[in-house]
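To whoever is on call:

I kicked off a structure prediction for a single chain this morning and the downstream step that reads the tokens threw a length-mismatch warning. I double-checked the sequence; it's 351 residues and nothing unusual in it as far as I can see. Pasting both halves so you can look.
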Amino acid sequence: MATHEHEITGPVDLCLPDGRLNRAAVGWSRVPLHRANLRGWGRTKRWEYWCVTTPTHLVALTVSDLDFLALNTVYLLEYPPGGRESEHTSIVPGARGVRLPDTVAGSPGTEDVVVGPARPSGGKVRIEIRDEASGTRLRARCLTPDRLPLEVDLLVARPEGHESLSVVVPWSDRRFQYTSKHTALPATGQVRIGTEVLEFGGADEPAWAVLDHGRGRWPRTVDWNWGAACGRTDGHTLGLQFGGRWTAGTGSTENGLCVDGRLTKIGEELDWRWSATDRSAPWTIRTPVSDQVDLTFTPFHNRSTRTDAGLIANRTDQSFGHYDGRVRTDDGTEIAVRHLLGWAEDVHMRW
């Protein structure tokens, strides 16, 4: 079932010279083609969010520039029961020292992204996103609450021909978002906590990386759902990328499937069902018109974040768990989804 949305096949600027949305940029692409030449201050938001998962643990890194401040985060989760959870966020007034490129950080030809001191103390974090010949290098450093050094060193591969989902979501000529979502990217490396080492990647326990790259000019208040998952299922390497609420009424969605490196773009808004009072309850995510997506997501852990820093207030419930059900590609291939590791989140943001 082909999407109704316009596919972009060549490079394009996100904005006109006066900072308004370039309507020629509205659409989606299989590789990042937009240059986010944003102008203006106050409503501009830029971020890179990477999450790398294994069957037993995960790490997520965020570098963000929200104009009036930056929120840079290192998050580690060893899955329950008994696993540790560690989150470290550095709030940077005025987003001083945070510079994010107009294109995907860590891709060929971009400048390195480096935030935080080389040897962070207290609540500070160091995060690096660098382009290397073999992929994107992710490094991070901070101190745990008991003052153990936590160090991340991961390499995310860029398989030749692997497709991603980039899309422009237009609320208006003054409010719009460009997002580039990359799923099912193989990753290798280590996370070290004191003298303990957590391995990422290997023949028996592969690691998978997801990127959420965002550039845009946002309304003051917004709500969204986001879900993603990666892994091997039914003989395929599958990446799920789903969004909800924030795109409604814009004519664009951020929904797609990456199957063996090939993207299927889904133009339907999804039907999300979840419990806001029981975060352990299963979710359902379905396409209401077609039968392309019919999934149940069962959480095993909820990451609850509450931020109130004056100009910014954030309520995030990011549940990690497994997807089961089925999906169907553009060419009619039906894939059984069995115990695919990922997450689904419910977010309210005032920024």
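Update from on-call: the warning came from a stale cache, not from the record. Cleared it. Sanity check on the structure: Residues 12-350 form one domain.
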